[in-house]
């Protein structure tokens, strides 16, 4: 039996339905555990208590990028192997990714205000996330604009492909652009570089929690999409008969 | 193939073709900016390259939805898809026609509008150069967006939403060329980047655009 | 020799198979008229043959670049004159004489008028004259006689007959009688696709039904 068996909608529904309750529990334990543990860590000598937002900020930022990569892979699977569930999974993941990007941007702003004295800085990293958000919005808008499911899946797949190339290109263009403005004077506090173990382990737990949370959300949303497609299919068949 | 280009140019320049509207829009945009930021040279000069590029970009956007929509509605696109020309060639030619009717007039008008925005004289050459190198990519990426949204009734707004993020790298390197040129720096690096983007776009995006058209035609 | 051979073709519309198991061949000098109730999939089948949409199953065999397709939209530009419209398609397809095509559909007097000034029937005639200038042997026509008067229908039938005599072939969907006695008729009603068989889904609507 190959892994493609799970691309069959019936099989997908059965397996995902069985896995989902356990995933929900694991995601809840890890996410809540990670953030709560993070909250109990001692205050940073430089950043004070503001450092604790890292347990929300970093996992969200990580997922924002990973979800786009997952959408790219799902789109490729759809375009090459025509597995319908794959296209729906990409559709289901997009709003989750957009919200993760928003969380990363919002927590970044809240963290940036006491640290840098500004809500927003056109730092390459921040700018890249803003651009990523634009790509998410375009992708979601295209899905919702096209009525025919087959065309929508194909066109969003092509957009995801081209968008990925340009998101990456923008990432490096932004790096170039910002250096052009102020020579290497980046305000970014790269997390993880000099992070002590006190912070690292709760952060890992929180990251795992966000990953599981994403899996839960994408499975639930894909299941909803499958049911919605099934309803549409039955209606279409009734119309035809 | 050249016939298709000739026809598109003829259609654009005849009555109802909308030729010159983009330049008019570009003029209005450049005329509005000083009302917003103030007439002082010190306020206008630093933002002139950016305004000119953003203005060119938005003016280019205006006519994008016409690239395929008219041919889609009257059935020409069906016929072109069955013609001996590959659809990739059709998309590239249509983008070229768009560039000639929209991009070239913008480039010709840009130095004049640069004067309105107090762009330093030595930067004018770089302005023209950067637009010449960069705008073909705008037209080709626009054709891709137009191909994706051609079947939609209200695709115009969505088209802007899809295409503008794709313009970011071109915009960044385009303005950087002028900025460095105006400051007397060496703009070779951004020129190479911009030319690289345009070359890559011209080589690869026609395939994506043709794929999108095929989906919309079936 | 056969210009077109269709084997066990299944064609889908809106992600659902409309017709399936359709097989026919079309030789030079032959005309085949597709019939069937609305929504059976005549247009879908014609678009498959024209290469505008992929077949779900089956094979379509023909020489490359042999189809001239004409459907409800004529592909005319209002801002161009009748001659310019026709010459454009002649050059794109590398085909035949514009003057002959104009004469055949009785458009010579209108040659220099802008296409915007034509009536619906005249536009239709221009759209059909385009078939001649493509120089393609296989005409694929979807409701070619819409908005034509009786005299023009006769003229069109004569055009098709000339094409067939010249070694061409025509595949068309039409509801009215063209007076082409030699044309074969294929009723698509028995080929209506039935749901429920296990097979490769044609689209979302079949994958999830």
From TrEMBL, chain A:
Its localization reads: Cell inner membrane; Membrane
Segments crossing the lipid bilayer: 20-40, 60-80, 92-114, 126-146, 158-178, 198-220
**Domain Cytochrome c assembly protein per the UniProt entry, residue ranges:** 4-182
Annotated membrane topology is: Multi-pass membrane protein
Q: Which GO terms describe its biological process?
A: cytochrome complex assembly
Q: Is Cell inner membrane found in the keyword set?
A: yes
Alphabetic keyword roster: Cell inner membrane, Cell membrane, Cytochrome c-type biogenesis, Membrane, Transmembrane, Transmembrane helix, Transport
Q: Which GO terms describe its cellular component?
A: plasma membrane
Q: Which InterPro entries would you find in this protein's record?
A: Cyt_c_assembly, Cyt_c_biogenesis_CcmC, Cyt_c_biogenesis_CcsA/CcmC
GO MF terms here are: heme binding; heme transmembrane transporter activity
Task: Indicate whether Nuclease appears among the record's keywords.
Answer: no
Chief location of this protein within or outside the cell:
membrane
Indicate the family of this protein: Belongs to the CcmC/CycZ/HelC family.
Job of this protein: Required for the export of heme to the periplasm for the biogenesis of c-type cytochromes.
> Know the name of this protein?
Heme exporter protein C
- Name of the gene encoding the protein in the UniProt record: ccmC
Automatic annotation (TrEMBL), chain B:
Q: Does the keyword Acetylation apply?
A: no
Task: List keywords of the entry alphabetically.
Answer: Cell inner membrane, Cell membrane, Cytochrome c-type biogenesis, Membrane, Transmembrane, Transmembrane helix, Transport
* Protein name (Swiss-Prot/TrEMBL): Heme exporter protein B
Q: How does it sit in the membrane?
A: Multi-pass membrane protein
* UniProt GO cellular component terms: plasma membrane
Q: Which GO terms describe its molecular function?
A: heme transmembrane transporter activity
- What role does this protein play? Required for the export of heme to the periplasm for the biogenesis of c-type cytochromes.
Q: Which NCBIfam families match?
A: ccmB
Q: Which family does it belong to?
A: Belongs to the CcmB/CycW/HelB family.
Instruction: List the residue ranges forming a coiled coil, or say none.
Output: none
Q: Which residues cross the membrane?
A: 12-35, 47-64, 96-119, 125-150, 157-178, 190-213
Automatic annotation (TrEMBL), chain C:
Q: Where on the tree of life does the source sit, at the highest rank?
A: Bacteria
Q: What class of enzyme is it?
A: hydrolase
Q: Heme as a keyword?
A: no
SMART domains (UniProt xref):
AAA
User: What EC number(s) has UniProt assigned to this enzyme?
Assistant: 3.6.3.41
The family database entries (InterPro entries) matched by this protein are listed as: AAA+_ATPase, ABC_transporter-like_ATP-bd, ABC_transporter-like_CS, ABC_transptr_haem_export_CcmA, P-loop_NTPase
Q: Could you give a single Gene Ontology term from the biological process aspect?
A: cytochrome complex assembly
Single GO MF annotation? ATP binding
Among NCBIfam families, the record links this protein to: ccmA (TIGR01189)
Q: What is this protein called?
A: Heme ABC exporter ATP-binding protein CcmA
Q: Which organism is it from?
A: Paracoccus alkanivorans
| Gene from which the chain derives | ccmA
């Amino acid at each position: 039996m190959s892994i493609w068996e799970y691309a069959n909608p019936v099989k997908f529904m059965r397996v995902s339905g069985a896995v989902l309750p356990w995933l929900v529990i694991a995601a809840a334990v890890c996410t809540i555990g990670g953030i709560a543990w993070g909250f109990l860590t001692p205050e940073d000598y430089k950043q004070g208590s503001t450092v604790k937002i890292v347990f929300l900020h970093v996992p969200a930022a990580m997922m924002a990028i990973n979800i786009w990569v997952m959408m790219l892979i799902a789109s490729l699977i759809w375009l090459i192997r025509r597995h319908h569930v794959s296209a729906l999974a990409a559709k289901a993941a997009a709003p989750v990714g957009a919200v993760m990007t928003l969380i990363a941007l919002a927590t970044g702003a809240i963290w940036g205000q006491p640290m840098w004295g500004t809500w927003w800085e056109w730092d390459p990293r921040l700018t890249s996330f803003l651009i990523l958000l634009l790509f998410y919005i375009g992708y979601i808008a295209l899905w919702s604009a096209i009525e025919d499911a087959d065309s929508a899946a194909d066109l969003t797949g092509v957009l995801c492909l081209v968008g990925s190339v340009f998101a990456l290109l923008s990432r490096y263009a932004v790096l170039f652009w910002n250096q052009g403005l102020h020579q290497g004077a980046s305000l970014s506090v790269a997390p993880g570089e000099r992070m002590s173990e006190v912070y690292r382990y709760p952060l890992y737990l929180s990251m795992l929690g966000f990953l599981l949370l994403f899996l839960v959300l994408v499975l639930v949303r894909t299941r909803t999409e499958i049911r919605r497609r099934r309803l549409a299919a039955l209606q279409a068949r009734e119309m035809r008969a | 193939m050249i016939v298709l280009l000739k026809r598109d140019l003829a259609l654009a320049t005849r009555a109802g073709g909308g030729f010159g509207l983009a330049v008019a829009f570009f003029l209005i945009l450049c005329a509005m900016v000083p009302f917003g930021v103030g007439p002082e040279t010190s306020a206008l000069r630093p933002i002139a390259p950016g305004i000119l590029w953003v203005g060119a970009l938005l003016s280019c956007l205006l006519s994008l939805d016409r690239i395929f929509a008219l041919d889609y509605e009257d059935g020409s696109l069906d016929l072109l898809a069955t013609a001996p020309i590959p659809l990739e060639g059709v998309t590239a030619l249509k983008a070229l026609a768009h560039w000639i009717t929209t991009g070239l007039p913008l480039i010709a008008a840009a130095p004049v509008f640069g004067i309105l925005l107090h762009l330093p004289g030595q930067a004018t050459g770089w302005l023209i150069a950067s637009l010449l190198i960069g705008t073909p990519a705008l037209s080709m990426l626009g054709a891709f967006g137009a191909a994706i949204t051609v079947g939609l009734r209200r695709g115009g707004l969505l088209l802007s939403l899809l295409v503008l993020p794709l313009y970011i790298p071109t915009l960044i390197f385009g303005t950087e060329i002028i900025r460095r040129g105006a400051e007397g720096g060496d703009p070779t690096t951004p020129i190479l980047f911009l030319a690289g983007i345009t070359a890559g776009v011209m080589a690869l995006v026609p395939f994506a655009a043709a794929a999108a058209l095929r989906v919309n035609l079936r | 020799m056969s210009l077109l051979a269709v084997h066990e073709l299944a064609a889908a519309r809106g992600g659902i198979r409309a017709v399936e198991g359709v097989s026919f061949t079309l030789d030079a000098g032959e005309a085949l008229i597709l019939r069937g109730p609305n929504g059976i999939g005549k247009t879908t089948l014609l678009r498959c043959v024209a290469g505008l949409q992929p077949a779900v199953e089956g094979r379509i065999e023909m020489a490359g670049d042999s189809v001239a397709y004409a459907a409800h939209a004529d592909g005319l530009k209002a801002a161009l004159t009748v001659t310019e419209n026709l010459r454009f398609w002649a050059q794109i397809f590398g085909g035949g004489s514009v003057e002959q095509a104009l004469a055949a559909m009785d458009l010579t007097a209108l040659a220099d008028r802008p296409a915007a000034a034509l009536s619906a029937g005249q536009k239709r005639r221009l759209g059909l004259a385009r078939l001649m200038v493509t120089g393609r042997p296989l005409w694929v026509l979807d409701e070619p006689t819409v908005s034509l008067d009786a005299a023009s229908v006769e003229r069109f039938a004569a055009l098709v007959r000339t094409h067939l005599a010249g070694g061409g072939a025509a595949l068309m969907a039409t509801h009215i009688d063209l007076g082409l006695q030699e044309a074969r008729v294929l009723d698509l009603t028995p080929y209506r696709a039935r749901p429920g068989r296990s097979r490769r889904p044609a689209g979302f609507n079949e994958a999830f039904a």
